[in-house]
Design a protein that fits this description.
single chain, alpha+beta, Arc Repressor Mutant, subunit A, Umud Fragment, subunit A, 2 domains, eight-stranded mixed β-sheet, two-stranded antiparallel sheet, disordered N terminus
Length: about 260
């Protein structure tokens, strides 16, 4: 907005930032703080750790939401319309301050190039996408076709091993593996190819039906062991094919 001397006043910019901004001045610094403390944003954000004002946080949230819903970042005019700024100068100054704080980047001369940068980006490890091929019963074997239904995106450091092109994920159903702390609803990551060692958890095809069990060798003969006393050992009548060896588990927090 403009005061009587045609100087720009931007609600949501701190007095220290206003002092550094050419042509921008707050008549009453206390008023800036009062505006900044208005309860208009209910989310807890990591950006608050780096000293964003309420308005700056709202602009960042708006840019991110616009990108999710529209598939592109908003223009300066669209930001001005959203927040009721009468001039694009207000948007330009907000963007400049957000860039200075390292939470927003732009590409000069390119339209819709605003990009929000997480303060945690420099701490993030390499993210990999692992294909999710449906579910697998941790119970009695079932005849199932494994259809790709999406992917699991995980940080390699959090996963504990480096996935390869042979890595894949399955969603667990049933309770036969609770003794190995594998529960219904868990997503397990497996590796196709390596021969299982005695005692490893495997996704297996036993006589044409799939199941998740512990691989056991006894007397040179393989069988599958459940980790729940309600379920019997599974001894193949004709064929036992190992589809993947268990490597990691992803679990949602229970409500």
């Amino acid at each position: 907005m403009l005061d009587g001397s045609s100087r720009w006043i931007l609600p949501g910019i701190s007095p220290a930032e206003l002092a550094q901004a050419p042509g921008i001045e707050a008549i009453d610094p206390a008023a800036v703080f009062r505006i900044d403390r208005e309860h208009t944003h209910d989310t807890v954000s990591i950006y608050s750790m780096i000293g964003l004002t309420r308005k700056q946080q709202q602009i960042l949230d708006f840019i991110q939401k616009w990108q999710r819903t529209e598939g592109a970042t908003p223009t300066f005019q669209e930001i001005a319309d959203q927040f009721g700024f009468r001039s694009l100068n207000s948007v330009t100054e907000h963007v400049r301050l957000l860039r200075n704080k390292g939470v927003l980047v732009t590409e000069p001369g390119k339209a819709r190039s605003l990009r929000v940068v997480s303060p945690l980006a420099k701490l993030r490890g390499r993210i990999v996408d692992i294909p999710l091929f449906g579910s697998i019963p941790a119970g009695l074997p079932q005849a199932r076709e494994q259809d790709a239904e999406g992917c699991v995106s995980v940080d390699v450091e959090s996963l504990g091993f480096k996935p390869t092109r042979d890595s894949f994920a399955l969603r667990v159903t049933g309770d036969s593996m609770i003794g190995r702390h594998i529960l219904a609803g868990d997503v397990i990551v497996l590796e196709h190819g390596p021969d299982p060692r005695n005692g490893q958890v495997v996704a297996a095809l036993i006589d044409g039906e799939s199941t998740l069990k512990t691989f056991v060798l006894k007397g040179g003969r393989p069988f599958l062991r459940a980790e729940n006393p309600k379920y019997p050992d599974l001894i193949p009548a004709q064929e036992l094919m190992i589809q993947g060896v268990f490597r990691a588990l992803v679990r949602k927090a229970s409500e």
